[in-house]
Amino acid sequence: MKNIGILGSTGSIGTQTLEVIRELNGERPGSFRVTALACGSSVEKMAAQAREFGVRLLCTGTKEGAERVKELLADMDPVVLWGDEGLKELAGSDMDVLVTAVVGMKGIAPTLEAIKKGTDIALANKETLVAAGEIVMREAKKRGVSILPVDSEHSAVFQCLRGIEPGELERIILTCSGGPFRTFPKEKLDSVTPEMALGHPTWRMGGKITVDSATLMNKGLEVIEASRLYSVGMKDIEVTVHPQSIVHSMIKTRDGAVLAQLGFPSMKLPIQYALTYPERLKCNVPALDFAKGLELTFEKPDLEKFPCLSLAIAAGEEGGTMPACMNAANEKAVKFFLEGAIRFTDIPKMVERAMGSHKTVRNPAAEEIIAVSLETYANAAL
Ligand code: NDP
Ligand code: MG
Which residue among 85, 197, 293, 374 is the one 20 to 30 A from 264 at the CA level? Predict the structure, then answer.
């Protein structure tokens, strides 16, 4: 039996993780036990999850939320933590795998805490690897902790890499749907509303990643994530726009072979693979039907139309604290955009401005990365 904790259990990845666990336990009763759940403000939803899965260690964003959860689950007598410290404490509790499905830089400290305790990480929260990738990978290696990717592209690469010897990998090719504005005129991007940006053509996800997908920042974050996860230089990672989202990513080996992982666009398989690795079990997603015909197209990303991709790559190449700065500025810009305070095209401007005024610290400690993230988030403006 594997004991699982989930940070962000009420979000898109969190709820799908519980769906996967429900289905796996249906196939093989008792395979997984959920030991800890954390959410921000969706306390009723988390309380219902805790009741269904019998979870007694919980955390919410606020003290009031924690009080409400205690009321809702009084008969279960749960331990309910709250706030950033609570999240860290929960992440450090005893479990086999922690699914990090909170959104944003909030994931950094609890992920590091879990690694310190020797817990394997099923990593959805890409912002953690973007801001603190070198530290995360170093600490994980030191403690023999596995970082199992949940992000579909990184899971695809992970799957392709099975059986590939170190030194045989030459290039990673990340696919990108192109987002909702792939064919939208560049000069009209100024008029994009939050509602338009939240309509992703192939994936259903939380608000922040959906906007990141529309600006192509998501792909930029993923290039950094891939470089840190697989120790591959930024220049050895290529992005190709593949609107059908069937090829989840590819690797090229030394001999020129290209290996890909294909599938119906669903996060359930990457989530399940991270939980059951190295085993492959039945997964409840529609199969590809090649008999019906399948069109797979690939094109170059338009870097002029989507400057966020280049900004993120530049931050990843610079390294040190720059990716943390870029990530925090983007997080703030997306928040402003969703609140209607800035335009869609202001998002890269805010990121560029923050990066322009940041002095990179080399080989930063985790505390410095968190400090840069918080400071940039507090000060980032148009
Ligand atoms: P959502 O916005 O759907 O979910 C975010 C989760 O974080 C919610 O459970 C939310 O709780 C929780 N949360 C917010 N604030 C806090 C807090 N203070 N303490 C604890 N939990 C908190 O996001 P997604 O599930 O879409 O994405 C999660 C992460 O996974 C992101 O980093 C994203 O980039 C990554 N990812 C997502 C993919 C997807 O398909 N969705 C694909 C690949 C990566 P509440 O409901 O209470 O607000
Ligand atoms: Mg992805």
Answer: 197
Residues 302, 251, single domain; the answer is yes
Which tokens in the block code for residue 299?
Answer: 């094109």
The whole-angstrom distance between residue 42's C-alpha and the CA centroid of its chain comes to: 20
**Is 145 contained in some domain?**
yes
Distance between Cα 130 and ligand 2 center (Å)? 13
**Ligand 1 midpoint to CA 7 (Å):** 8
Nearest atom in ligand 1 to the alpha carbon of residue 203 is: 40
- The predicted-structure confidence for 93-144, as pLDDT tens digits, reads as follows 999 999 999 999 999 999 999 999 999 999 999 999 999 999 999 999 999 9
Q: Torsion angle of alpha carbons 113, 143, 221, 239, nearest 10°?
A: -160
368's tokens:
């410095």
Domain presence at residue 307: yes
Number of structural domains, the chain? Answer: 2
The predicted-structure confidence for 279-331, as pLDDT tens digits, reads as follows 999 999 999 999 999 999 999 999 999 999 999 999 999 999 999 999 999 99
- Asked if residue 341 and residue 214 are part of one domain, the reply reads yes
pLDDT for residue 154 is more than 90:
yes
3-state secondary structure (DSSP) of residue 2: strand
CATH number of residue 31's parent domain: 3.40.50.720
305, containing H or E segment = none
Is residue 116 domain-shared with residue 165, that is, in the same domain?
A: no
Has this prediction a pTM greater than 0.90?
Answer: yes
Ligand 1 binding pocket (C-beta < 6 A) is 7-14, 38-42, 61, 87, 101-103, 106, 124-127, 151, 203, 205-207, 209, 267
Single out the residue in 82, 114, 149 at which a domain terminates. Answer: 149
Pairing of strands 120-123, 147-149: parallel
